[in-house]
Amino acid sequence: MADETRQRLIDAAGTVFAEKGYEAASVRDICNAASANLAAVNYHFGGKRELYVTAVRHAQCCRQEDVPFPEYPADMPPETRLREFIGTMFERMLSTNRPRWHLEIMLRELARPTEACAAVVEDYIRPMADALRTILNELLPDDLSVEQRWMIGFSTVGQVLFYYVHQPIIRLLTQNPEGNTFPLELLADHVTRFTLAAIGAGPPVVSRKAAFTAAKSEAES
Description:
CATH topology: Tetracycline Repressor, domain 2
Largest sheet: none
CATH class: Mainly Alpha
Strand content: under 5%
CATH superfamily: Tetracycline Repressor, domain 2
Number of domains: 1
Helix content: over 70%
Order of helices and strands: HHHHHHHHHHH
Radius of gyration: 21 Å
């Protein structure tokens, strides 16, 4: 029963925090939404701040558990591992099976980081960054600096984050108000090819001939 109450508080808190933000959310609102008494927050979490950190970590943890990163075979080419890594990121971020507050509270945390962000970085994001850097290091020239390697990793993840953070704008631009505008497989293939082309480990995303033909066709239309 105690575990059930604790989970109700996390789900209710996530919804309230996502809607109102940390400062505007009240413990009373959260407890009412969770059908719990006011003392329950202190009993289970020690206070509002700890409950907020728990809700943010829960939103990230569920993503990890629902879509774990695959175990890569030793002989899998780094290009294929990169595609699998990017595909897993898209599945985690754009899954329609998770509560909406998971996305909303993480967007708030990205916009205004708190100590919850530090916890998420150490528990979840740093291991992912290390895995991506291992893959990229097999594809990048040896003479690149550490800073350049970090930036290439950030640029790769940034492409995925764009579709995560800007879903509402993408839906408006493409006139598709519901659901994912692009299939996840298509997105993963595009970002992988774009990244490989950018670092010189793959062909151009669009060949010069194809680009010229498209531009000529558009000019003549």
